[in-house]
Amino acid sequence: MSEKGEEFTDESGDLAMKLLKNNGHVVKARELVSDDREQIEAALERALHMSGVNVVLFTGGTGVSPTDVTIETVRPLLDKEIDGFGELFRSVSYKKIGFPGILSRATAGISHEKLVLCLPGSPDGVKTALNLFIGDIPHIVHVAAGRH
User: Nearest CA to 116 among 65, 73, 87, 148?
Assistant: First the structure.
């Protein structure tokens, strides 16, 4: 529920969890946070220090509206950015939906040897992004942890 008592639906988060679980991944925790830098940063810090967590996934806040602050909040906390992910996502999105596909600033990176994903808030954007690399997540985590 929101501060105003409104019910939240998180269709994109539900879809991400379903796709991850259907591909053999274990979801350790899930949290809804507002488009607020402090909340996003705190959620990332909690996840990065949670035992057994190898991937942190954010949905939403990756567009160009003034309230979209996920990228600005997460990017400074990344040790390395995976530029190719965002480039590929925007290319696939452009082919799929046209010009609006390039407005996403979806990104991925590594922080504390963990994969951090910042995906669009739309269910189709989440599905498109996860389908690009969901099978490669174990490899990315393995390499990021220096076990290659």
Answer: 73
